Amino acid sequence: MIRAIQLSYRVGGRTILSHLDLEVKKGETLAVMGMSGAGKSTLLKCVGGLIRPTLGQVVIDGVDIACLKESELDAVRIKIGMVFQYAALFDSLNVYENVSFGLRRHTGMSEEEIAEVVRARLAIVGLPRTEQLMPSQLSGGMQKRVGLARALALNPQIVLYDEPTAGLDPITSAAIADLIVKARDELGVTSLLVTHDIQTIKRVASRAAMLHGGKIVAIGTVEEMENHPNPVVAQFMAGSSEGPIRITE
Amino acid sequence: MRRDNSQSRTADRKDVVGEVLQDVGDEIAAVVSLPGEYTYRALAKFFDFIGESSILLARTWAFILRGRIDLRDTVNQMAFIGVASLPIVLVTVAFSGAVLALYTSQLGVKWGFGSYTGGVIGLSLARELGPVLTAVVVTARAGSAIAAELGTMKVTEQIDALRALAVSPVQYLVVPRLIAAIVMLPLLTVFADIVGATAGYVVAVVNGVAGGGYVNSLRTQVLPSDVLMGLIKTLFFAVVIVVVGAQQGLRATGGATGVGRSTTGAVVISIVVIYILNFFLAYVMFGGKTAFL
């Protein structure tokens, strides 16, 4: 469903991703974990077609999106829902307008049909009757749930999650993780999430991959990653300050 | 032994002197190369700005020519850029017309050309003060708001969210603002010209100019082409205000500081470009004419 082949991204003389290979199979939830600044969000933006890789391919459903024009990319983006780290809700629009934003522009739905989809998506994320609220009236957790509802509105085949639980308390984080599982089970979406939250990975991921030094250094099931011999993975899973990863890196 | 120590001390001294000379040389090289480095950076920034603005303008026109225009957003922007700017434009231009009338009428009455006051003020307003002051006020009010809004959207990933939803930020954000500015700036200028000339009339009459003479001079000296050329200038100014505001906003980085920098940049660059552009437009439009003098 998603393949990154020899993906490299350089900016301002710094190499963020270096000849990275990754595959996400249809229907699975793959979590990419790594230190802050490891390039997780960059990887997600390359897959979502928001930035172009310096080298390599990003193949979505058989199409290499790295060489598509901006106008051609839009056809691929409609198949992908993206949940941003800080929700990125349009702050001049209310919840209803945020969730219906893509529907208005890319479907020929009537206002009643749009309202029906918005209600259904808000019900999935557990936020009924919030349509008229503005983003500034929502808590951080609620904003992320509205962001998820917006991402799911166009029935995407793929959902990309950028740090979906960052900055949230453990209970809200667990609720968001459950929503990711619910979205996968109810809508059958393929999910790629980047996070450094081990608890979320354990709750949602079919497989996990470790991003370090611009490459995927290990990939496997969560159980395999917990017992992985790679010292980088072992240190990260243990949450230890002692090991090959130094905080100055 | 003593000789060895002496040689060693001399060598140490030479090393120290060498290091000091090296440091001094480095400093001199740094100072000498500084103007070159600054020039290079300034030129790089300038060409970045020109390139980004040109691409942004071309992409905006491409959407407009293909009819990809959201009417509701455009009307909202007309209200914001035009209607909401009207009071401050009127106040600014009214008082500018008044102060111009104050000096002109005093000198005119003193030297016997008071009857020309209306023409002087009318021409100044129609050709220069009306279009330029309106553009400056709209830059301060709407240009800064465009940069701040787009900049905030950029640093909070709302621009990325638009693109992720397969919506072009240029089409959604820049197109309505450009059309609104192109429509509203000439209208604001018409109101500004009328209010400025009226304020000038009041001040001129108070200072001893005959009311009939003021109106007569205004009617005979200010040609429709003067007003029209002034309004044509505002179309260029509208493009500058929106494109510079959007370009500065869309390149914002680094949170609140970056948004502040973009907003300041948008206002400063727009005003400078408007004044420079105004000279060349005036030269092309009015350079060979002697309508008044």
How many alpha or pi helices of chain A? 9
Strand fraction of chain B equals under 5%
- Which residues of chain A form runs of ≥5 with pLDDT under 50? none
The first-to-last residue Cα distance of chain B is 97 Å
Helical residue percent band of chain B: over 70%
How much helical structure, as a percent, in the residues of chain A? 25-40%
Counted by DSSP, the helix tally of chain B is: 9
Give the second-level CATH assignment, the architecture of the domain at 2-79 and 156-238 in chain A.
Answer: 3-Layer(aba) Sandwich
Q: Main sheet of chain B?
A: none
Instruction: List the strand order in the largest sheet of chain A.
Output: 6-7-8-3-9-10
Helix/strand order of chain B? HHHHHHHHH
What's this model, at a glance?
Helices cover 37% and strands 24% of the residues of chain A.
Description:
The complex is a heterodimer of chains A (249) and B (293). Helix content of chain A is 37%, strand content 24%. With 249 residues, chain A is an alpha/beta fold. With 293 residues, chain B is mostly helical. Chain B has two domains: 1-37; 55-286, no CATH class. Chain B is built from nine helices and no strands. Chain B has helices spanning 2-65, 71-81, 86-111, 117-155, 158-164, 169-206, 211-221, 224-250, 255-286. The interface between A and B is medium-sized, with 26 and 14 residues.
